[in-house]
């Protein structure tokens, strides 16, 4: 890994604001025949002790690469810049021997495939006991007893029998729970879980998420939970960071992200979630189009080709992440103020009753420059659908959802963040 970063060998000291993990302006680029792959283009976040940060985005948005950079696990071809501080100590550029000591012990990583972490030739009990013995000066008997406890905490049935089995005798969900138990045994300060439930069916997902909650409760660790599904982080995270084309496009407390999203991509992700409101028969609304290639990105907002709210300025200038609802909630969108209107959740609606060509509150806001009055007449081509380029096929409509009670919050009828993302049951 080639890298450019400041003062790599800083002493261990308090991080800004006492964050356990501080990531600043992280960029990762891979060389390729087609040109540099800009996998991560400026990721910054602080993870506070005990906090759960959800990182959400579609495939290829840079979720894994940014986390692998934190762990120092990128291939040598990767060019990394920026800063990653664990308890104030710069990790980027740390010699491999020192980084190995940080990995597993201070920062544990849980991958989508549990067999990445488990050794197929050793019994589960042996692997757990090894982790316990690595961190505690106890006898083998005590380590085995603790291993049994850990298996119980993560919900493995009959742990006294299971402890003497091999990984292949466990189901995928149970293996993932064993990996979580091993992470607990290491007593880490930070757990990074990269799509830990993606390969599992919905019921098993809920069990693994429950095991993660137990691990976090037991260790008090802070956690980065990576997923492509906003529903998975709903009952789990304190804050959410939404990534698109290698960049954070919205970050904020979970309530703000779910109930007051200020970036159309976040709105689109929310629109793809199942709705709890049984009164409506409205179908899920996927975001039209696909994410861009991060090789030779054109100027402007990378989301513009898929965005019903795009205007000229979006095609010229990539928006910066700026505070939208207090300093804690930030979004990267020239038109984030338009999403404050009631009906903002419907920017991707395919509801045939939604009035095409009309924005929230029946007004047309498209094509305006930032700061332009929403009441000003739009610059729209005759016959052009909202957000549509001349000659481009429409991908969606805007309009206020008919039947939404006045005063109801955008997204209020969506998933409740306090509810189990799998079952919808209250926590
Ligand atoms: N070793 C590599 N060499 C070149 N490009 C890479 C490498 N690893 C990842 N990339 C590219 O970096 C970008 C970000 O990939 P990353 O794996 O972080 O996406 P992701 O958000 O984790 O997606 P997914 O949800 O599919 O896991 C993608 O365009 C990917 O093709
Ligand atoms: S309105 Fe413009 S800046 Fe905002 S997401 Fe759409 S294209 Fe990007
Ligand atoms: Mg990934």
Automatic annotation (TrEMBL):
It is found in: Cell membrane. Gene3D superfamilies: P-loop containing nucleotide triphosphate hydrolases. It is a peripheral membrane protein. InterPro entries: AAA+_ATPase, ABC_Ni/Peptide_Import, ABC_transporter-like_ATP-bd, ABC_transporter-like_CS, Oligopep_ABC_C, P-loop_NTPase. Residues 349-427 are annotated as: Disordered. Residues 380-392 have a biased composition (Low complexity). Its main location: membrane. Keywords: ATP-binding, Cell membrane, Membrane, Nucleotide-binding, Transport. Residues 21-270 form the ABC transporter domain. Belongs to the ABC transporter superfamily. This is ABC transporter domain-containing protein. It comes from Catenulispora subtropica.
């Amino acid at each position: 890994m080639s890298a450019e970063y400041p003062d790599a060998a800083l002493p261990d000291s308090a991080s800004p604001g006492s964050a356990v993990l501080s990531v600043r302006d992280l960029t990762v680029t891979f060389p390729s025949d087609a040109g540099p792959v800009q996998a991560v283009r400026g990721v910054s976040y602080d993870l506070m002790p005990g906090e759960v940060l959800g990182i959400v985005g579609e495939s290829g948005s840079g979720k894994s690469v940014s986390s692998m950079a934190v762990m120092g696990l990128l291939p040598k071809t990767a060019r990394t810049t920026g800063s990653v501080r664990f308890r104030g100590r710069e990790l980027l550029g740390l010699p491999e021997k020192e980084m190995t000591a940080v990995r597993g012990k201070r920062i544990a990583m849980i991958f989508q495939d549990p067999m990445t972490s488990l050794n197929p030739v050793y019994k589960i009990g042996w692997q757990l006991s090894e982790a316990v013995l690595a961190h505690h000066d106890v006898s083998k008997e005590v380590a085995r007893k603790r291993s049994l406890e850990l298996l119980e905490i993560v919900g493995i049935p009959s742990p006294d029998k299971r402890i003497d089995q091999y990984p292949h005798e466990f189901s995928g969900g149970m293996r993932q729970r064993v990996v979580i138990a091993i992470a607990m045994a290491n007593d880490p300060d930070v757990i990074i879980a990269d799509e830990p439930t993606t390969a599992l069916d919905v019921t098993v997902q809920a069990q693994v998420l429950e095991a993660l909650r137990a691990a976090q409760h037991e260790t008090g660790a802070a956690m980065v939970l990576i997923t492509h599904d906003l529903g998975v982080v709903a009952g789990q995270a304190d804050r959410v960071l939404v990534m698109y084309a290698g960049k954070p496009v919205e970050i904020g407390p979970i309530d703000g992200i779910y109930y007051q999203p200020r970036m159309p991509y976040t709105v689109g992700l929310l629109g793809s979630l199942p709705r709890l409101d049984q009164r409506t028969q409205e179908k899920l609304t996927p975001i039209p189009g696909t994410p861009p290639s991060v090789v030779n990105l054109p100027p402007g907002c990378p989301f513009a080709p898929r965005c019903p709210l795009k205007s000229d300025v979006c095609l010229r200038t990539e928006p910066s992440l700026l505070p939208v609802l207090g300093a804690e909630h930030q979004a990267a969108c020239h038109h984030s103020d338009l999403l404050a209107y009631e009906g903002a959740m419907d920017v991707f609606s395919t509801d045939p009753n939604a009035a095409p060509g009309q924005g929230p509150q029946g007004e047309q806001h498209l094509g305006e420059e930032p700061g332009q009055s929403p009441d000003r007449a739009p610059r729209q081509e005759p016959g052009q659908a909202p957000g549509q380029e001349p000659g481009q096929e429409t991908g969606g409509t805007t309009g206020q959802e008919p039947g939404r009670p006045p005063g109801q919050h955008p997204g209020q009828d969506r998933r409740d963040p306090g509810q189990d993302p799998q079952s919808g049951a209250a926590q």
